[in-house]
Design goal:
alpha/beta; about 15% strand; 2 domains; about 350 residues; two-stranded parallel sheet; 14 helices; 11 strands; transferase activity; TIM Barrel
């Protein structure tokens, strides 16, 4: 199974989240096998007096520009894992600057990574200039970064498959999510044979990333890799992490939104009642959620009967027909599905009239 590299903590430092909350966030992420947190050094600078006591230093891979200032800051803060940022647009004439940065990093870092941006539209062969540098300076991994969201899953798979043929060290993939393809590209990279994928919870970040929970569950469900971490508290854990970032989880967010397993349409409800696998690729319990039956203008009598069975009440067919008319009228007026207390009120009022 490939290893997921976290960028959620990077976003937490960028947003100046309290260090205690960042430590709690890191502990939650470790439940899901995320043990390396890639963070830009300038985001951490304000925390430098306290970060060592938070026991995060050994778990952070410090991302730096190829400048003496960034490298000096990373060294002074005691980071042993350093990822050097490099733009592929810099051209071969500027490689001496990269070599100088690698040499400086080798003087103090136990692990050196090369983080290459702006390579998505170039031919894989143009990457060959970096492999000798990786060998010479003992680079642990080269990170292929689609920082401008130029890839689609087919191109990602093709490029990375080709790159792996000439790679002299392991390859890692990290993609931005400007076009909503980061998760798909991450999975394509995985299929191509890349063993390290950059993710963040719900894709959090200024440009977004592959959504951690989506990658985790796609691998578990679609590729049947069931030996990974348990996800039975995934929705709550993701909500707690996003809350620390001051991000509200959309109710229909894939896998972790509170209404993602909600069903309103009559034919959907009837199908789910008979066989949930007709509409649900995973069971809601697998991520710590519960199936919801919403009653609204799209509901049918079967939905109403099923809802009342949840309350241990049997609704006769003629009662259901009359009640459904009132439900649709109220839902249309409110412009939303009706709440349980509103449905019960309609039911009681109908019984009183009878």
């Amino acid at each position: 199974m490939a290893e997921l590299i976290d960028y959620t903590v990077d976003e937490a430092f960028r947003r100046s989240v309290d260090l205690e909350e960042i430590s709690a966030m890191a502990s939650l992420l470790q439940r899901y096998g995320l043990n390396v947190f890639d963070v830009y050094v300038r985001y951490i600078d304000a925390y430098r007096s306290a970060i060592a006591s938070a026991e995060l230093t050994d778990r952070i891979r410090c991302r730096v520009r190829p400048t003496a200032d960034d490298l000096s800051l990373a060294r002074s803060m005691g980071f042993s894992k350093v990822a050097i940022l490099w733009s592929n647009t810099s051209g071969p004439m500027a490689l001496s600057k990269l070599e100088a940065a690698l040499e400086a990093a080798r003087a103090f870092a136990e692990e050196i990574y090369l983080y290459i941006e702006d390579i998505s539209l170039t031919q894989p062969a143009s990457f060959d200039v970096y492999w000798p540098l990786a060998e010479r300076y003992g680079v642990k991994r080269v990170i292929y970064c689609d920082s401008k969201s130029r890839l689609d899953p087919l191109i990602a798979h093709s490029n990375l498959t080709e790159l792996l043929k000439s790679a002299t060290c392991p390859l890692e993939f990290c993609g931005a999510n400007l076009l909503g393809l980061a998760t798909a590209n991450g999975l394509a990279a995985w299929k191509a044979g890349v063993k390290y994928i950059g993710v963040s919870v719900a894709g959090a970040g200024s440009k977004g990333k592959a959504a951690m929970e989506e990658v985790l569950m796609a691998v578990k469900v679609l590729w049947k890799q069931t030996h990974g971490p348990s996800a039975h508290t995934l929705a709550d854990d993701c909500e707690a992490i996003l809350s620390a970032l001051n991000i509200k989880v959309p109710v229909h967010k894939a896998l972790i939104g509170r209404n993602v397993f909600a069903h309103e349409s009559g034919i959907h409800v009837d199908g789910v009642a008979k066989n949930p696998e007709l509409y649900e690729v995973i069971r809601p319990e697998e991520v710590g959620l519960a199936r919801k039956l919403l009653i609204g203008k799209h509901s049918g009598t079967s939905s109403l009967k099923h809802k009342f069975r949840e309350w241990d009440l049997e609704l006769a067919s003629d009662e259901a027909v009359l009640l459904l008319e009132q439900v649709r009228e109220l839902a249309e007026r409110r412009k939303r599905p009706i709440q349980d207390n509103e449905l019960m009120e309609l039911y009681k009022r109908q019984n009183e009239l009878e």
